[in-house]
Design brief:
Layout lengths: L2 H15 L15 E2 H11 L4 H12 L11 E3 L11 H4 L12 E2 L8 H11 L4 H24 L25 H5 L15 H4 L8 H16 L6 H5 L4 E2 L1 H20 L5 H17 L1 E2 L4 E2 L1 E3 L4 E3 L17 H16 L27 H13 L3 H18 L9 H4 L12 H12 L2
Antiparallel strand pairs: 1-2, 2-3, 4-7, 5-6, 7-8
The chain binds alpha-D-glucopyranose.
Length: 437
């Protein structure tokens, strides 16, 4: 399929998913506005209608809390009942600083918005509307980062923690298994609830019910402490410094510093965070044996030793030194030689690898977008080109899905991708990758 055909299909996906002022990730399965999805979605909108990119980000930040938290879901419609956990289960009114409208969840997601803002500004340098937008959006994003450094870094290391797998954006990754297994739920301890996702997507591609119970348990733990209480760090069985979240935060800090300087804002606070975060990240999260970065389990006091896609994302933030980056590049090119589409989300040689269950193996186009740019910046042009052409190939062959089979031999027997269809960030990643050709 020629690229302009792919491009016009991608445009259609974003148009179809546009609601009044924001874009849903996909119909039915995810009927609201998601935090990091929206960031990536702006990338696509900017090439079609810059006003929509601005509206998208404004709608998202209309759900920001007084403490700076940017929630992982904004429930713009209170009538939409096809999603669990909905706003009535989150009950964010337990925190007086949570807006009453729009309603939201009480946890966050990867803070991509700094580098998205920088991207919009870079691609539209003379646009007055974007400049005015950047001026106030800078302050909101800064406030969000301040929340992460204030409430999520109890030991002042410059590394933020997550207490719920959904915050990582990689909800079902095996990285969280050990922490989730620490949660023992007694009969009747959880309120009755009804999942909706397994009606809307193939249960084999979704989390199991034991896992879901633990997600609910952690949600309730957050609620017990108004979602920002210090007790969360004391009590949560899952307390992790996620490599990808922190790499994204570092990338977004760097972008904010750049934008701030352009707009003549004070960036001293961000620069201080940044030098500490970079130092701690490099000291604490690299694992020489794996040849990759790892996430750190604050409960066990150990790295979580798996080759997982979050360990690759630091290339996007300029974190690895040249030898470390070389190892990561090597890992990717070997996977390519072995017949995998780049980039499997989990170690294909691990027993925990599951090529179709989400975040336990499949390929995700928006992850490839970050990896492509990271590899390019380090000068690994060949591997970057493979990441890009694989992304084009899977979307051309299997459609605009949420995630994809990484094993080419298995994929050859399939006619579609996995999870939700007509997926927004898949479309956006394609649009931006085509424009960066
Ligand atoms: C899934 C993904 C998460 C994403 C959401 C909406 O929950 O794991 O990262 O934000 O879907 O697309």
């Amino acid at each position: 399929m020629p690229l302009d055909n792919l491009l016009s299909q991608a445009h259609k996906v974003l148009e179809t998913n546009w609601r009044d002022g924001f874009t849903i990730p996909t119909d039915k399965l995810y009927p609201f506005q998601w935090n990091w999805d929206s960031g990536f979605i702006c990338l696509g909108h900017q090439f079609m209608d810059i006003g929509k990119a601005i509206q998208e980000m404004n709608s998202l930040f209309s759900g920001q809390w007084e403490n700076g938290l940017l929630p992982h879901i904004i429930f713009h419609s209170e009538n939409e009942k096809t999603y669990f956990p909905n706003f009535d289960f989150w009950e964010t009114e337990v925190n007086p600083g949570a807006p009453t409208k729009p309603k939201s969840s009480g946890i966050t997601q990867p803070p991509v918005h700094g580098f998205i803002l920088e991207n919009l500004l870079r691609n539209n340098p003379q646009n007055e509307e974007i400049l005015a937008f950047a001026n106030y959006m800078f302050d909101k994003i800064l406030n969000y980062h301040r929340f992460l450094y204030t409430y999520r870094d109890p030991f002042s290391e410059g590394l933020m923690y997550i207490f719920h797998p959904w915050e990582s954006g990689r909800d079902n990754s095996p990285l969280w298994d050990e922490s989730l297994n620490r949660i023992h739920i007694k009969e009747g301890e959880l309120p009755q609830y009804h999942r909706r996702d397994t009606y809307l997507a193939d249960p084999a591609e979704r989390p199991t019910s034991a896992q879901y119970d633990r997600y609910v348990y952690l949600l309730l733990l957050g609620k017990k402490y108004q979602y920002d209480g210090l007790e969360i760090a004391e009590e949560s069985p899952l307390l992790i410094q996620d490599d990808m979240m922190n790499a994204i935060l570092i990338k977004a800090n760097e972008a904010l510093i750049k934008v701030g300087k352009q707009l003549r804002k004070d960036t001293a606070e961000i620069e201080e965070w940044q030098s500490q975060s970079l130092y701690s990240f490099r000291e604490k999260l690299w694992n020489e044996e794996l040849g990759m970065f790892t996430s750190y389990d604050l409960r066990s006091g150990e790295q979580i030793k798996h080759k997982e896609i979050g360990g690759i994302i630091p290339v996007f933030a300029g974190i690895p030194d040249s030898q470390q980056a070389e190892k990561i590049n090597q890992y990717l090119s070997e996977l390519h030689d072995r017949g995998y589409y780049l980039t499997p989300s989990f170690d294909v040689d691990s027993q925990l690898f599951d090529s179709k269950r989400y975040w336990r193996g499949p390929v995700w186009p928006h992850m490839n977008w970050m990896i492509f740019h990271g590899l390019n910046d380090y000068g690994f042009k060949d591997t970057a080109a493979i990441v890009k052409s694989d992304t084009f190939e899977i979307v051309e062959k299997f459609g605009f899905f949420e995630y994809y089979e990484p094993d080419k031999a298995l994929a050859a027997k399939l006619v579609r991708g996995y999870g939700g269809g007509l997926f927004s960030w898949t479309a956006s990643s394609i649009i931006d990758l085509i424009h960066s050709s």
